[in-house]
Amino acid sequence: MEFEHRPVLLEPTVNALVQADFGGRGAARSPSAVDDEAGAARLQKGIYVDGTFGRGGHSRELLRRLGREARLVVFDKDPLAIAAARDLAAGDGRVSVVHGGFACVGEELAAMGIAHIDGMMMDLGVSSPQIDDAGRGFSFMREGPLDMRMDTSRGVTAEQWLAQASVEEMREVIADYGEERFAFQVAKAIAARRAAGPLRTTLELAECVAGAVRTREKGQHPATRTFQALRIYLNRELEELASTLASALELLAPGGRLAVISFHSLEDRMVKQCIAAAAKPGAAQARLPLRESEMPQPLLRPLGRVLADDEEIAANPRSRSAVLRAAERTTTALAVDAASFVPELPGAHRAKRAASHGGKARRAKGTR
Question: Which residues contact 113 (CB under 8 A, 6 or more apart)?
């Protein structure tokens, strides 16, 4: 069955990678920005990455704008997306395909002999075909198995995880990854429901959650946050995003661009904070008696934020929550661990406290 795919923020995302004056660059050039001649050469021979191929809307538009000697490496976990990517590669020699998440971008590019890239884009979240295919288990509006895996060839399904997770584990995941106020009530409702019989379908879970969420945001299904939380957790989406943002800082050549579309506040916050930290690496030392020349120099130059306009939202309601953030790599060498510019994951502080308390308890027990 074919499903319609509408790329979100298509033109702005590709423009962020290839348009010289994107984000007002023409009005206020960065001292570290590459010149227009170098930028033009990059479009002809540059190496680009699409970390979330999906059905290839963004990749096809980018290829249309690149030269014959350019190269595009596309990644995706979804076997159906990979099949579409291989069809594209069969007709375009500039395309290389990797069946895997974007977290492995550094390793995979190194295996191809690629040390630096000129642009990377990521469209986070679930694609329209994945939502519309009830068999994938992402939609709380369609009857289907509780799967929720991006890569259906491996990993634990939502049904399997919900069958064995404790109430506290479910509460933490739903609260941390879904920012659900009623996470405890939802976790207890799931535990009570599975005691009467296993949860096997999306509509069974949606109905169970709806009974536990006492209030809801206007126009939002009560199960929205719980489904998002389970999907993000099971697919390790935030962990992979954190790893990939660090890899982008290492891989992007001077003048190279990063463009990330987020649909969830946690994802957008991580991207925003990473760009901000890399753009002002000396913020923590601002009050120290250091000369300007001694301060850490920016690794990224923010190129701004773009939201879907009314016309796009009317044509594709799923673009309503989309946020595109873009940045450009400067000429500053990376002198510290790139991961230091990526914010901590949800629940990280709690995990540290638990580890600390556990260590103290073990030490205390050992002295008795």
Answer: none
Q: Is 323 in contact with 304 (CB distance < 8 Å)? A: no
Residue 10 half-sphere exposure toward CB, CA atoms < 13 A: 18
Give 9-49 pLDDT, tens digit per residue: 999 999 999 999 998 643 333 334 445 666 677 777 899 99
pTM of the model: 0.84
What are the structure tokens assigned to 301, written together? 């130059």
Please give the order of strands across the beta sheet that includes 71-76.
Answer: 95-99, 71-76, 47-50, 117-123, 252-262, 323-329, 300-307
The DSSP H or E segment spanning 160 is helix 158-164
Helix (H, G, I), strand (E, B) or coil at 82: helix
Summarize the chain as % helix, strand, coil (round to 5): 50, 15, 35
* Conformational region of residue 101, where left means phi above 0, alpha means psi within -120 to 50, and beta covers everything else: beta
Handedness of CA 128, 132, 135, 138 (dihedral sign): positive
The answer to whether 317 and 292 are in contact (CB under 8 A) is no
Q: What count of other Cβ atoms lies within 10 Å of the Cβ of residue 202?
A: 26
- Distance between CA atoms of residues 182 and 47, nearest Å: 45
Domains of the chain as residue ranges with CATH: 10-128+237-341 (3.40.50.150), 152-234 (1.10.150.170)
Containing 177, the helix (H) or strand (E) segment is helix 167-178
pLDDT given for residue 351 in this prediction: 52
Q: Within 10 Å of residue 258's Cβ, how many Cβ atoms?
A: 29
Helix (H) or strand (E) run with residue 98 in it = strand 95-99
> What is the spatial distance between Cα 203 and Cα 127, in angstroms, rounded to a whole number?
20
Give the integer Cα–Cα distance in Å for 227 and 210.
Answer: 11
Residue with tokens 């069946």: 99
